[in-house]
Amino acid sequence: MVRAYHLYMNGGMAGDLYNINGNAVLSMQEILEMLRTLTTIHFDVAVDQARFRPTDVQRLQPVCTPFKERFAWEPSTPYIQSLTDLLNYWRARV
């Protein structure tokens, strides 16, 4: 994302709007399962249906093609690496 922001800041036009996202769309369940693979700690997940709103979208996939074509950009860090980095950051802080 930082590379994408840098490309936009150095070559974008004021007022241009782009979606910037990775190549995969992951649900929270899929992200939690990835996190489970990175730790030996068991944790349970409980879904609180009362927190859902009638307008919540189950799966949203933004289209990033215009940004990719304009700036010749592709995401280069796999999701699992980002999650690993984030988890290690918080491990070091706690």
Task: Name a few traits of the molecule.
single chain; mainly alpha; extended; 94 residues
> Taking Cα atoms only, what radius of gyration do you get, to the nearest Å?
17 Å
Structural class call reads: mainly alpha
What's the helix-strand series? HHHH
Q: Could you tell me the strand content as a percent range?
A: under 5%
The largest β sheet comes out as:
none
Q: Quote the distance from N terminus to C terminus.
A: 26 Å
Q: What's the pLDDT, averaged over the residues?
A: 90
The backbone outline, from C-alpha atoms, is extended
Low-confidence stretches: none
Helix content: 40-55%
Your description of this structure?
The protein is an all-alpha fold. It is built from 4 helices and no strands. The chain has helices at 2-11, 28-37, 65-71, 79-93. The longest helix has 15 residues, at 79-93.
How would you sum up this structure in a few lines?
By secondary structure, the protein is mostly helical.
Show the helix and strand layout.
Blueprint: H1 2-11, H2 28-37, H3 65-71, H4 79-93
